[in-house]
Amino acid sequence: MRIGVLGFQGDIEEHVAATREALKKLSIDGSVAVVKTPDELREIDALIIPGGESTVIGGLALFNKSLSVIKDKVREGMPAFGTCAGLIMLANRTYDRVVGETRQPLIAVLDVLVERNSFGRQRESFETELDVSIDGMERIKGVFIRAPSIREANQGVETLAKLDGQIVAVRQNKIIGTCFHPELSGDTRLHEYFIKMIVS
Questions:
Q1: Is 14 in the active site?
Q2: Is CATH 3.40.50.880 what the domain over 2-199 is classified as, yes or no?
C-alpha cells in the first residue's frame, strides 16, 4: 500500500507521521510519501490532502497539472482523506463566510457545500471533544484552526461528526473529509479508519 500526502503546503509532515504510526498500530505493511507531481500521484493507492491554505494548494496543483490527475484518480475510486483545507479542496462547492464566492480551483469529488472560515479566523482557533458516528470510536479531539464547516451534505454523504449542530466530518464512498485537524491531536484513530477503508 502506497499512501501519498499532498506536499504543496500545510500540515504535511504531521500527516506523514500520523499515517506511519497508524500503519504500525494496525500492523499493515505500507509506505507513506510526500507527493506533488502528476507522476508521483499516479503511483499511489490513496491520498491525504492536509490542512493549510486551500487557495495556495489548489493554485499550485493546477499550475503543475496535478489537480486533474487527483480528480481523475479519486473519481476512478482512489481513497482520499482531506482535513480542513483538504476538505475544501475535495468539496463540490465552497464559499467564504466573509468574502463569499471564492472561485478557487477544486478537486470537486465530495458532494458537499463547505463554508470557509466558518468558526472564525486564526485567533478563534480552539480544541474540543467531538462525538463521532464511527464503530469503535465514540469521542475524538477536534483541533479547529480557521476551520470550515459543511453547510450541506447531499444524498450519499454520511455524517461522521457534528459540532453545535454543524457538520464537521463526513464520508462518501471512499472519501473522508474533516473540518478539523486529526493530524495535530496526537490520536491516530481517524488515520487508522482511513487505512482500514483503503484495504476494505
A1: no
A2: yes
